[in-house]
Automatic annotation (TrEMBL):
The keyword Ribonucleoprotein is assigned to this record: yes
Ranges annotated as spanning the membrane: none
UniProt keywords, alphabetically: Methyltransferase, Ribonucleoprotein, Ribosomal protein, S-adenosyl-L-methionine, Signal, Transferase
Root EC class: transferase
Matching SUPFAM superfamilies: S-adenosyl-L-methionine-dependent methyltransferases
Record protein name field: Ribosomal protein L11 methyltransferase
């Protein structure tokens, strides 16, 4: 701050009844850049998965009533809702608060709110250990970035299903073509 502006502000503050020492203290107090939090933006734009693809993904993962399905980057919650309709408990994680709002509305419209949980969170920082099935519709680079977390947190036998994008050098066990799209399936191996 220039000396002239500082003098004008100090004069105005004193005229308003604020002590000059209090103004000087306030002026020197700065918020460190690291403590300023900015809202993290989504890594991908939301593109809804078509119903035929959702059905193929959940069928390939053999989703049933004993499953806990996690949809990472859940968008409007359509995969989570479909999994709940199959009897599974399902969790959707998305960083975008608007998508979480839409997902909750979607679950309410479909009468499955008791079987679903939508969380506004960063999927790279989320605890996904209870999942028996994980669904993804992320870019290949994000799938590859997510892979170590999947391997670290998921139990052997957990099924992973990705719409359109693979996991780099981790070869899928199954590849399914449906409605012009590709569905990839993996299983977390024994450790």
């Amino acid at each position: 701050m220039t000396r002239g502006i500082r003098a004008v502000l100090l004069g105005a503050a004193v005229a308003a009844g604020v002590s000059s020492s209090r103004v000087a203290c306030a002026e020197e107090r700065q918020v460190p850049a690291a403590s300023v939090q900015t809202e993290r933006r989504p890594d991908v734009i939301f593109v809804p998965t078509r119903e035929l693809v959702i059905e193929a993904m959940l069928k390939a993962a053999k989703v049933g009533p004993n499953d806990v399905v996690y949809d990472l980057g859940c968008g409007d919650g359509r995969i989570v809702v479909a999994a709940a309709k199959l009897g599974a408990r399902a969790v959707g994680i998305d960083i975008d608060p608007q998508r979480i709002k839409e997902a909750n509305e979607n679950a309410a419209r479909n009468g499955v709110t008791a079987k679903v949980d939508f969380r506004q969170a960063d999927l790279f920082e989320s605890d996904i250990r209870e999942a028996t099935v994980v669904t993804l519709y992320l870019l290949p680079s994000l799938n590859v970035k997510l892979r170590p977390r999947l391997m670290e947190q998921l139990r052997p036998g957990t099924r992973i299903v990705s719409h359109d994008f693979d996991m780099g050098d981790w070869a899928p066990e199954q590849t399914i073509a449906v409605d012009g799209k590709t569905v990839y399936v993996w299983t977390i191996p024994q450790k």
